[in-house]
Amino acid sequence: MISTGDLKKGLAIEFEGQPCNIIEWQHVKIGRGGAIVRMKLRNLRSGAIFERTCDAGDKFKRLYLDHSNVTYQYQDGDHYHFMDMNTYDDIILTEAQLGDAKNYLIDNLELGIVRYNDEPISVELPEKLVLRVTYTEPGFKGDTATGGNKPATTETGLVVQVPLFIATDDLIRVNTSTGAYVERA
Question: Which residue, of 47, 62, 77, is where some domain finishes?
Fold first, then answer.
Protein backbone atom coordinates (compact mmCIF):
# COMPACT_ATOMS: atom_id res chain seq x y z
CA MET A 1 0.00 0.00 0.00
CA ILE A 2 1.24 3.47 -0.82
CA SER A 3 0.03 6.78 0.54
CA THR A 4 -0.85 9.92 -1.37
CA GLY A 5 2.61 11.33 -0.61
CA ASP A 6 4.17 8.58 -2.75
CA LEU A 7 1.97 9.18 -5.80
CA LYS A 8 3.62 10.28 -9.03
CA LYS A 9 2.79 10.59 -12.70
CA GLY A 10 2.79 7.27 -14.55
CA LEU A 11 2.31 5.12 -11.44
CA ALA A 12 -0.20 2.25 -11.71
CA ILE A 13 -2.60 1.90 -8.78
CA GLU A 14 -5.85 0.12 -8.00
CA PHE A 15 -8.59 2.73 -7.65
CA GLU A 16 -12.20 1.74 -6.90
CA GLY A 17 -11.33 -1.86 -7.80
CA GLN A 18 -9.96 -0.98 -11.25
CA PRO A 19 -6.36 -0.82 -12.52
CA CYS A 20 -5.57 2.84 -13.22
CA ASN A 21 -2.62 4.90 -14.35
CA ILE A 22 -1.99 8.34 -12.83
CA ILE A 23 -1.91 10.97 -15.58
CA GLU A 24 -1.72 14.02 -13.30
CA TRP A 25 -1.93 14.64 -9.58
CA GLN A 26 -1.89 17.73 -7.39
CA HIS A 27 -1.55 18.06 -3.61
CA VAL A 28 -3.79 20.90 -2.38
CA LYS A 29 -3.75 22.39 1.14
CA ILE A 30 -7.11 23.81 2.15
CA GLY A 31 -7.26 26.71 4.67
CA ARG A 32 -8.23 25.21 8.03
CA GLY A 33 -9.10 21.78 6.73
CA GLY A 34 -6.75 18.99 5.85
CA ALA A 35 -4.98 18.56 2.56
CA ILE A 36 -6.54 16.84 -0.43
CA VAL A 37 -5.14 15.23 -3.55
CA ARG A 38 -6.69 15.81 -6.98
CA MET A 39 -5.89 13.07 -9.47
CA LYS A 40 -6.50 12.57 -13.17
CA LEU A 41 -6.56 8.82 -13.84
CA ARG A 42 -6.86 6.54 -16.85
CA ASN A 43 -8.64 3.22 -16.43
CA LEU A 44 -6.23 0.69 -17.94
CA ARG A 45 -9.00 -1.73 -18.94
CA SER A 46 -11.41 0.65 -20.67
CA GLY A 47 -9.12 3.59 -21.49
CA ALA A 48 -11.57 6.02 -19.84
CA ILE A 49 -10.03 9.14 -18.28
CA PHE A 50 -11.58 10.56 -15.11
CA GLU A 51 -10.76 12.92 -12.23
CA ARG A 52 -11.11 12.16 -8.53
CA THR A 53 -10.37 13.95 -5.26
CA CYS A 54 -9.28 12.09 -2.13
CA ASP A 55 -7.95 12.89 1.33
CA ALA A 56 -4.20 13.29 1.79
CA GLY A 57 -3.97 10.27 4.12
CA ASP A 58 -5.67 7.75 1.81
CA LYS A 59 -3.77 4.62 0.82
CA PHE A 60 -3.78 2.81 -2.52
CA LYS A 61 -2.64 -0.59 -3.72
CA ARG A 62 0.30 -0.28 -6.10
CA LEU A 63 0.02 -2.45 -9.20
CA TYR A 64 2.91 -4.26 -10.77
CA LEU A 65 2.37 -4.60 -14.49
CA ASP A 66 4.03 -7.11 -16.82
CA HIS A 67 5.63 -5.87 -20.02
CA SER A 68 6.44 -7.95 -23.11
CA ASN A 69 7.33 -7.34 -26.75
CA VAL A 70 4.76 -7.78 -29.51
CA THR A 71 4.39 -7.11 -33.23
CA TYR A 72 1.32 -5.39 -34.69
CA GLN A 73 -0.34 -7.68 -37.24
CA TYR A 74 -3.68 -6.32 -38.47
CA GLN A 75 -7.00 -4.62 -37.64
CA ASP A 76 -10.35 -6.44 -37.71
CA GLY A 77 -13.17 -3.94 -37.13
CA ASP A 78 -12.67 -2.46 -33.64
CA HIS A 79 -10.13 -5.15 -32.71
CA TYR A 80 -6.38 -4.90 -33.21
CA HIS A 81 -4.28 -8.07 -33.40
CA PHE A 82 -0.74 -8.37 -32.06
CA MET A 83 1.65 -11.33 -31.94
CA ASP A 84 3.68 -12.01 -28.81
CA MET A 85 7.29 -12.31 -29.99
CA ASN A 86 8.17 -14.94 -27.35
CA THR A 87 5.14 -17.26 -27.42
CA TYR A 88 3.69 -16.37 -30.86
CA ASP A 89 0.25 -16.01 -29.24
CA ASP A 90 -2.39 -13.78 -30.85
CA ILE A 91 -3.25 -10.87 -28.53
CA ILE A 92 -6.35 -8.80 -29.23
CA LEU A 93 -6.93 -5.26 -27.96
CA THR A 94 -9.94 -3.02 -28.57
CA GLU A 95 -9.86 0.49 -29.97
CA ALA A 96 -10.77 1.86 -26.51
CA GLN A 97 -7.80 0.07 -24.91
CA LEU A 98 -5.41 1.49 -27.50
CA GLY A 99 -6.63 5.09 -27.32
CA ASP A 100 -4.45 7.41 -29.43
CA ALA A 101 -1.90 4.62 -30.01
CA LYS A 102 -4.06 3.36 -32.90
CA ASN A 103 -2.90 6.38 -34.94
CA TYR A 104 0.67 5.04 -34.95
CA LEU A 105 0.14 1.36 -35.81
CA ILE A 106 1.81 0.25 -39.03
CA ASP A 107 2.24 -3.34 -40.19
CA ASN A 108 4.93 -5.32 -38.35
CA LEU A 109 5.61 -2.50 -35.87
CA GLU A 110 7.46 -3.81 -32.81
CA LEU A 111 6.12 -2.36 -29.56
CA GLY A 112 5.52 -3.26 -25.94
CA ILE A 113 2.32 -4.57 -24.40
CA VAL A 114 1.24 -4.06 -20.79
CA ARG A 115 -0.53 -6.84 -18.90
CA TYR A 116 -2.32 -6.87 -15.56
CA ASN A 117 -3.05 -10.34 -14.10
CA ASP A 118 -2.13 -11.84 -17.51
CA GLU A 119 -4.79 -9.66 -19.18
CA PRO A 120 -3.47 -7.36 -21.96
CA ILE A 121 -4.60 -3.81 -21.19
CA SER A 122 -2.54 -1.35 -23.26
CA VAL A 123 0.50 -0.87 -25.51
CA GLU A 124 3.76 1.06 -25.18
CA LEU A 125 4.83 2.78 -28.38
CA PRO A 126 8.41 3.63 -29.31
CA GLU A 127 9.30 7.26 -28.51
CA LYS A 128 9.63 8.19 -32.20
CA LEU A 129 8.22 6.49 -35.27
CA VAL A 130 8.83 6.86 -39.01
CA LEU A 131 5.63 7.34 -41.06
CA ARG A 132 5.04 7.93 -44.78
CA VAL A 133 3.16 11.07 -45.84
CA THR A 134 0.24 10.01 -48.05
CA TYR A 135 -1.13 13.48 -48.75
CA THR A 136 -0.06 17.07 -48.28
CA GLU A 137 -0.40 20.23 -50.32
CA PRO A 138 2.50 20.65 -52.75
CA GLY A 139 5.44 22.82 -51.75
CA PHE A 140 6.64 25.69 -53.89
CA LYS A 141 10.06 27.10 -54.65
CA GLY A 142 11.31 29.13 -51.71
CA ASP A 143 9.55 27.06 -49.03
CA THR A 144 11.97 26.70 -46.12
CA ALA A 145 12.03 25.05 -42.72
CA THR A 146 11.24 28.33 -40.97
CA GLY A 147 8.57 29.46 -43.42
CA GLY A 148 5.60 27.92 -41.60
CA ASN A 149 3.71 24.67 -41.36
CA LYS A 150 1.03 22.78 -43.28
CA PRO A 151 -1.06 19.69 -42.46
CA ALA A 152 0.08 16.31 -43.77
CA THR A 153 -1.83 13.02 -43.62
CA THR A 154 0.26 9.93 -42.85
CA GLU A 155 -0.26 6.30 -43.86
CA THR A 156 -2.12 5.64 -40.58
CA GLY A 157 -4.53 8.55 -41.04
CA LEU A 158 -2.77 10.73 -38.47
CA VAL A 159 -2.66 14.42 -39.44
CA VAL A 160 0.61 16.13 -38.48
CA GLN A 161 1.74 19.75 -38.91
CA VAL A 162 4.91 19.61 -41.03
CA PRO A 163 7.27 22.20 -42.58
CA LEU A 164 6.38 23.49 -46.05
CA PHE A 165 9.17 21.54 -47.81
CA ILE A 166 7.67 18.12 -46.93
CA ALA A 167 6.01 16.46 -49.94
CA THR A 168 3.74 13.46 -50.52
CA ASP A 169 5.60 10.10 -50.14
CA ASP A 170 8.26 11.64 -47.87
CA LEU A 171 9.17 9.74 -44.72
CA ILE A 172 8.88 11.77 -41.51
CA ARG A 173 9.74 11.01 -37.90
CA VAL A 174 6.89 11.69 -35.45
CA ASN A 175 6.98 11.91 -31.64
CA THR A 176 4.38 9.37 -30.47
CA SER A 177 3.67 11.05 -27.13
CA THR A 178 2.86 14.49 -28.62
CA GLY A 179 1.98 13.62 -32.22
CA ALA A 180 4.37 16.33 -33.42
CA TYR A 181 6.72 16.30 -36.41
CA VAL A 182 10.36 15.79 -35.39
CA GLU A 183 12.37 15.58 -38.61
CA ARG A 184 12.50 14.20 -42.11
CA ALA A 185 13.57 10.54 -41.99
Answer: 62
- Number of structural domains the chain divides into: 3
- Residue 48 CA to residue 95 CA, distance in Å, equals 12
Length in residues, the chain? 185
Alpha-carbon distance of 182 to 149, in angstroms, equals 13
In the structure, what pLDDT confidence band is assigned to residue 99 with cuts at 50, 70 and 90?
confident
Distance CA 168, CA 156 (A): 14
pLDDT at residue 69 greater than cutoff 90:
yes
Q: Where are the alpha helices (DSSP H) in 34-181?
A: 95-98
Whether 73 and 50 map to the same domain: the answer is no
Range of the domain at 58: 2-62
What pTM did the predictor assign? 0.74
